[in-house]
Amino acid sequence: MAKRMGKKRLIAETGAGMHGVATATVAARFGLPCVIYMGATDIERQQANVFRMKLLGAEIVPVTAGTGTLKDAMNEALRDWVTNVDDTFYLIGTVAGPHPYPAMVRDFQSIIGKETKTQLQEKRGRLPDSLVACVGGGSNAMGLFHPFLDDASVEIIGVEAGGHGVTTSLHAASLNGGVPGVLHGNRTYLLQDADGQITDAHSISAGLDYPGIGPEHAWLHEMERVKYVSITDDEALAAFHTTCRLEGIIPALETAHALAEAIKRAPTLPKDHLMVVCLSGRGDKDMQTVMNHMAGAHPQETLA
Amino acid sequence: MSRLEQRFADLKAEGRAALVTFVTAGDPGYDASLAILKGLPAAGADVIELGMPFTDPMADGVAIQLATLRALEAGQTLAKTLQMVREFRVDNQTTPIVLMGYYNPIHRFGVEAFIEQAQSAGVDGLIIVDLPPEHDAELAAPAQAAGIDFIRLTTPTTDDARLPRVLERSSGFVYYVSVAGVTGAGSATSEHVGSAIERLRRHTDLPISVGFGIRTPEQAAAIARLAEGVVVGSALVDKIAKAERPEQAVEDVLALCSALAQGVRSARG
Questions:
Q1: Bridge partners (DSSP) listed for residue A277
Q2: For residues A71-92, b (16+ Cβ closer than 10 Å) or e, as one string?
Q3: pLDDT in tens, A74-127
Q4: Which residue, among B172, B178, B84, B87, has the nearest Cα to B128 in the 3D structure?
Q5: Least trusted range by pLDDT, from A140-149, B128-137, B187-196, B215-224
Q6: Do A198 and B106 touch (CB under 8 A)?
Q7: Which residues of A sit within 8 Å Cβ distance of B?
Q8: With 90 as the cut, is the pLDDT of residue B154 above it?
């Protein structure tokens, strides 16, 4: 699209760095200069992805405003975009932002749900019974959910980052702990105070550390097509360790939220229940965060 | 006739442009900010834009981002901003006040309650930078029904195909953002502004105010020869940032305002 529109430069915001790495990759492949906006806090906790982006030739701009996380990076990317709109294409990393981004990103990401549907048809000859995905802005979840929305038999569960718990002030669960508002060009559920000021989100996973959520998720929540639950930092970490040990898979901390919900639900379901969990990211990028957490919270568990 | 219409009509008769000054409400604190607000008309401000602080000022450059943070840290809220306007109106009935900011605090406050209180406080216009014309009817319609002008932004990228959409139901004046970018960014050339205003005039009879990147009396004078209004914001706000005491902030902002006003008033002499 950038090439077709004659844009010569790519910009993106990133939280965990996955979207930044993806953007830097296509920029390298197509020979376009690339600038990635990333919160200073996130740069600190996602060093591996920062290094990957640099290897791929991207320029990383640290954003220190606010809490130095995803929303601040998005503010800064929007500022760059309005300044350089003539030659710059902005790749928003989630199903949020001004129209048509939520729809456009959904349509691109829906390859996840389409492949899931086709593969399950081939292997099992039927639809899944349930879908589970983690939701920050909600792009991987929307990608999985969207092709199944009209299949009424499929139960759909989105998992928000509960941080220290949605009853505390330290979480990133916009649907379970926020109210409707307007930010970054969309009307959706936001974490905000009584004066309409956006409050800081908290999650152990940088990719879910955002005080809003894509507007289509807000709509699916209100119409009750999708059930949105939350998983705390501790539950996500426990699921992270369980999945490493039992499956040999090192999941991203974002993904660990979806896995924690799957682990909660599975024992209550019949043996032939077909559940799809979106393994949205791998955990290599989170080694430092997990090590720090083990050293701090549970010193007896350190692997050293 | 609204206060904005009256002011632009009077200045047209005088043969000069309006100096439109922007400061953030509550920066550096409520009392100093109110002192600045009350002092601006005597220092030559013809129209006052009062920024409503918001945590995520995505259309603003560093100067106004920092002003916003100072105001929020000092405890500014939307209710207090309306209170400032009320206090200003105690002894000023002629200088128009335009509230400028982002939609979320108003959305949270409740549109109906906000419009009612803004009207009774003496607010004359609104500029809501993150509400595009396609989505602003829920605020613009009740505002205009209450006699509060709804001012829209046009930019170098608002082309002839889109301009009618942006100008439809605009009132008060048209704000021309002279550079693609955020507040406080580099300034546009007089040639660019001249041709942009010519293009706007083909689409509207409303007064046109030009802003973004205007910092000095000389720049203000150059724009005052071309447009009905000259907006200065970041340069004034920078004075607050650099001041060591609130009293000094008040003094320095008003001094710069006087210098800018001289520039604007001498422009067509």
A1: A132
A2: bbbbbbbbbbbbbbbeebbbbb
A3: 999 999 999 999 999 999 999 999 999 999 999 999 999 999 999 999 999 999
A4: B172
A5: B187-196
A6: no
A7: 65-66, 71-72, 74-75, 78-79, 82-86, 98, 179-185, 190, 192, 194-198
A8: yes
Question: What value does the mean pLDDT take over residues A286-298?
Answer: 84
Which residues of B carry out catalysis? 49, 60
Smallest CA-to-CA distance from A214 within A192, A193, A185, A194 is with A185
For position B38, what pLDDT does the model report? 98
Q: Give the model confidence (pLDDT) of B70-80 as tens digits.
A: 999 999 999 99
Strands laid side by side in the A88-91 sheet: A59-63, A34-39, A9-14, A88-91
DSSP state of B95: S
In the prediction, which pLDDT does A298 show?
56
Q: CB-CB: which of A86, A185, A198 is closest to B55? A: A198
- Integer angstrom CA distances of residue B131 from A167, A180, A184, B101, B138: 32, 16, 10, 10, 10
* Phi, psi of B68, deg, nearest 5: -60, -45
Question: Distance from first CA to last CA of chain A, Å, rounded?
Answer: 48
Between CA A216 and CA A171 the distance in angstroms is 21
Q: How far apart are CA A14 and CA A29, in angstroms?
A: 19
Give the minimum alpha-carbon distance from B154 to chain A in angstroms, rounded to a whole number.
Answer: 13
- The CA dihedral of A99, B131, A80, B59, to the nearest 10 degrees, is -160
Closest CA to B70 of B248, B250, B241: B241
| Mean pLDDT score, B92-121 | 98
Interhelix angle B217-224/B246-266, rounded to 10 degrees, is 40
**Tokens representing B113?**
């309650």
Structure-token pair, residue A6: 């004659």
pTM of the model: 0.94
Nearest residue, CB atoms, A65 vs list B59, B65, B185: B65
Other beta carbons within 10 Å of B109: 21
User: If you measure CA to CA, which chain A residue comes closest to B181?
Assistant: A83
Determine, for residues A82 and B181 on separate chains, whether the beta-carbon distance falls below 8 Å.
Answer: yes
Residue-level pLDDT at B19: 98
Calculate the CA A289 to chain-centre distance. Answer: 17
Task: Supply φ then ψ for residue B251, to 5 degrees.
Answer: -60, -50
Q: Closest CB to B109: pick one of A84, A85, A196.
A: A196
Let me know: does B209 contact B174? Beta carbons within 8 Å: yes
Task: Give the closest residue to B51 by CA, choosing from B88, B5, B102.
Answer: B102
Single out the residue of B95, B119, B133 nearest to residue B6, CA to CA. B95
Question: Quick check: A82 and B57 CB within 8 A?
Answer: no
